[in-house]
Amino acid sequence: MNVQEYMKLPYNYVIKPINDESGTYYHAMVLELDGCQSTGATFDEAMDSLQEAMTGWIETKLAHGFPVPEPVDTDDYSGKFVVRIPKTLHFKLAMAAEKEGVSLNQYALYKLCN
């Protein structure tokens, strides 16, 4: 495949607003392409900048003979997975969830995301 063919594939993008010490802007990244990211003053600028970054990222990989990951279909994931943990950790999480008044699943999700 060439760069243009890869660019037509349905990659998963994340574009989010950032407000930090350098100001307010948008950060954009491609989940499947490790390190492929960019920024812009607006959502559209971030997306345009990300498209340029993707082109360069893919060109570089192909020029050096490295594989380019293809998009991941999120429909392949059920949203459920099983994790084995020590009984003591299970107990601590269950107690913390009870204290917060939420289910263990909700509390674990909160802890994973923060």
Helix/strand layout:
Blueprint: H1 3-7, E1 13-20, E2 23-30, E3 37-40, H2 43-63, H3 87-100, H4 104-113
Antiparallel strand pairs: 1-2, 2-3
Helix pairs in contact: 3-4
Give a brief rundown of this model:
The protein is 44% helix and 18% strand. It is built from four helices and three strands; from the N terminus they run αβββααα. Strands 1-2-3 form a three-stranded antiparallel beta sheet, covered by helices on one side.
Question: What percent of the residues sit in helical stretches (DSSP H or I)?
Answer: 40-55%
Q: How far from one another are the termini?
A: 38 Å
CATH architecture field of the largest domain = 2-Layer Sandwich
Which residues sit in consecutive blocks of at least 5 with pLDDT less than 50?
none
| The CATH top-level class label of the largest domain | Alpha Beta
The tally of structural domains comes to: 2
Q: Give the beta-strand count.
A: 3
Spatial extent as radius of gyration? 20 Å
The CATH topology of the largest domain is given as: Double Stranded RNA Binding Domain
Structural class: alpha+beta
**Tell me, what's the shape?**
extended
Note the beta-strand portion: 15-25%
Biggest sheet, spatial arrangement of strands = 1-2-3
The total count of helices amounts to 4
